[in-house]
Protein 1
Amino acid sequence: MDLSKQAIGRAGEFQAAAIFERHGVVTTHVDIHGVDLWCETPSGRRVTVQVKAAQRPQPNYGRHVTPRYHFNVRQKDAHPADVYCFVALDLSLLRLFSAGELPAAATKKMGQNMFTETDMATDIKRYLY
C-alpha cells in the first residue's frame, strides 16, 4: 500500500522515536519547523532531530542500477536540527548524520546496504550518547 507523503513522514517520526527509546534515548515528539523530536541522551545531553523517511527504495534511472532510498533535505536556512535521521520504513532501520555533514539543499540517496543493525547502533551511540 502506498502512503501519502504526510503519512510516510509521520510513520518515520514514530518509528525513529521507538528505536531511540529502545536504546535508552528519551524522546518527545514536537511540531516545530525543522525539528521533529527532542531527545535526551543517556548522558543527559539534549539533541534536536529532524526525521526524513522513505517507504521503500525507488528505482534509479541512469548509471545507478540498484534501487535507493530518496530523502529530501531542502532547508533554505541553516539546518535547524542538530541531527538528521533517515528512516527506511520497510526495513525498520535508520541512519543518523549531523547537520554539518549535509549540504543545505539536496536529495540524500542511500542504498539498502547502508541500512544495517550494526550501522544503526553505531550511529545512535555516536550522535545520541
Protein 2
Amino acid sequence: MDRSPAGLRTRLCRELGIEYPIFSVGFGVSAGPELVGAVSGAGGCGVLGGSGLPAEEIRRRIGRARELTDRPFGVNLIIADFEDPLASDEDRAFVGGQIAAAVEARVPLLVLFWGDPAPFVEDAHRNGVKVFVQVGSVTEAAAAASAGVDAVIAQGIEAGGHVRGTTSIWELLPAVVEAVSPVPVLASGGIGDGEGLARALRLGAQGVSLGTRFVASEEAWIHPVYKQRVVDSSAQDTWYGDLFDVWWRAPGRVLRNNRTFKEWDAAGRPPPGARPGEGTPIGTQRRAWGDYQWPRYAPGMVTPDFDGDPEYAPMWAGESCGVVNDIKPAAAIVRDLAREAEAVLARAPTA
C-alpha cells in the first residue's frame, strides 16, 4: 500500500517503486544491510556502501539486504581508479569486479561516484539495473545524462565525506535540473531535515540523497563516538579540504573537533610530509577479509570494532549536522523527514 503523501511522491518514486524520495548514502563499509533494510523498509531507498569491499563481500551484503527487505535498494561504488591513468591494472580490475558483482546480482540501482559512468551503463541496463551517478557540476551532469544514466545526484559543497561539488547545492541544483531535463535529479549536501527536502523538491529535485543524517542512525555501523560527535556539532564545526589524503587525494568535509585536525591546526597546518604523526598508524581496522593498520591522515569510516583511538580517525560530516539532533532508528528518520517535508510543502512558499 502506498503510504506516501501525494506531495512527496515524485516521478522517480513511481519509477523505482518507492514511497518517499529519500535515499541514504552508501558511505562505505558503514552503510550495511541493516541500514539499507531499515531505510527501504520504511519507504525510502537504502544504498549499500561497496567502495573498498571485495566483490565477494559485496555479493554477501546484497544477499543479506534481500533477506531484510523486499523493497528496492542500491549499491554505491567509487569508480575513480577505473579511469585514473596512474591507477594500476590491479586497481582497475578490482573496481571492475565490484561493478560486475552488483550488476550480476541485479540490484535495482547502482550509484556511482567520482568518474565517468559511461563504461558501465549499457551492461547495467542489459541486466535490468538502473544507474545513478553523483556529480559536482553542470558539465559533469550533462555528460552523465548523455551517457544514458537514469538519474543524476547533484552534490553541493556543503556535503560531508568526499566532495565533488564546488558550489552550494542551492545554486547547483536548479542549474543541473535545467541542464539534464527530463533526466531526474537528486540533491545532496547540506540537507538533513524535512525543510531541506521540501526546498530541494521545490527547486525541481526528484529526491534527496542524505549521508550525515543517516550517520546518526542506530543501524549505521559507525563508532558511537563518531555518531555522538555529529549530533553535538554545528555546520561551523565542519571543515572542507584535503587533510585525509593518504591513499587518495580528494577534497572532503570532516568535523574539525577531533585530535588529528586539532594537532595539525596547532602545528600551523603544515603540508604533507611535515604533518604531526604522519606515517604512524592510528590503530587496527578489523575486517572479515583481512585486518589492516590504519595510517594517520588516511580516509575511511571508523567502525565499532576499530582497535585504536577514534579521535584520530576522520569523522566525515556535512553542514547538515547542524540540524541532526539525535541518534535514532533509520526508519524513524525516514518517516520524520517525510512528515516534516509534507508539512512544509503544504504551506505557501516564502518569497
Protein 3
Amino acid sequence: MNELSHTVSAEVAVAPQVAFTYLADGLRQGEWTLGSWDRERVGDDLFRGRSLYDDRIVYVRIVPDAERLIIDYEVGPYPDQLTRLICARVIPGDKLNGKPDSCVVTLLAWRSAADDDYSWRRTCDLHKAEIHLIKGRLETDERSSEPAA
C-alpha cells in the first residue's frame, strides 16, 4: 500500500452550512472521529481526545475556512507537534447533484512519513466508517430539529 492520500465522500441531506458548522465544531467532532474520542477544549481551536483503537491522547487544531467550506485538521501527539494531515470539504448539492438542500461531504487524509502500512490502512478504514457516522449524525440532527407535522 503506497498511496499518498485517501478520500471518502457521502451525499448528505442537509444544507451545506449545516454540515460545515458541524464539521468545524471541535467538541462535536468527538461524536464521529474514532481516532479522537471524548473531546475536550484545551485552547483556542485546540482540542484533545483519546484514540478508540490504541487509547493514545491526540491533539487536534481546527482550521475552518467558512467561505470555501473547508476545514483543515492539524493532528499530533502534543500541541506543539501538529501536522495538517486531514481536511473536510463540503460541496453544495446544487453544484453537483441539483439538490439545493443537500451537500457532499468529503474527508481527505494524507499519509505521513510516520505511517507504516498497517497504520495507514487503519486510517483509511476508519475514514470509511467516519463518513457514515457524519452522514447519520447530520441527517438525524436535522430531522430532530424539524417542527412536528
